[in-house]
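Hi Q.,

Before the meeting this afternoon, I wanted you to have the iron/sulfur cluster prediction in hand. No need to reply - just skim if you have a minute. The sequence and ligand are here:
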Amino acid sequence: MIAAVEIGPVAPPTNRGRSKAELLATVSASRLGTWLGCRLKFYFRYVAGLRKPNTPARHVGTVVHAVLQQWNLARWRRTPLNAETVKAVFEQKWTPPEDEPIAWDADEPKVAVKEQALGLVEMYLRETPIPPDEKPEAVEVSAEMDLSAHGLPTLVGVIDLVRAGGRIVDFKTIGRTPDGEMALHNNDVQLTAYALLYRDATERRESALELHHLVKNKTPKLVVTESGPITGPQIARFYRLVESYVRGVELEDFVPSPGIQCAACEFFNECRLWH
Ligand code: SF4
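Predicted structure with the ligand bound:
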């Protein structure tokens, strides 16, 4: 088990934390993304296993994902959902599990957040570039890829959607309209991981990668950012990042990375106690 770093009394390791062996056995895009963003945040989340109340923004993202998953599954079964059923699925997903309370914000009434979430789903179904009769190749599919030949952990991940013809889609709910190239750059690790997993599982090359951003503007909007198949340099870059992850976890190199991302970090208080 990795030893706890010195952070004071508020953040003892919990039984949700993972051992070094577990962290080195597999790696996912989200774990790698947290590692690259801030190693101390990674420590709090994955080693100490600290859990914080869910935020309204994360709840909206989870619910929108869940409804779109059902919408995609219904197309896969050739029984598309009508507007009424979509609303019923939304209502069902909106109630959070009892053990996952949400820290509602006093400035943003719950009912307004719910309306915003439903508005995002309705906007997406109006504006999506995916034809209603297009059968997906795969929906919410778990995959893993053995990277032991490279001396690396097994890559694991869940792909939101693979459209007909091998178009990999990832859904995002965000607060600001994304810039195309920056969005691809910011999501490079995730998209490369999904493309590698797809290639390994199907022995085919993906035809495209699509980010479907559902933007939480006053009037919600959809921004689709697309790129072609991943390139050799992207793959090499991804492997270098995983190598760096492996070295860092082995050394227990959990240092903070203060910066703009700290404003949204749920471990801010614990971080201030770190030394
Ligand atoms: S507050 Fe910033 S530096 Fe501290 S753990 Fe969070 S992201 Fe890292």
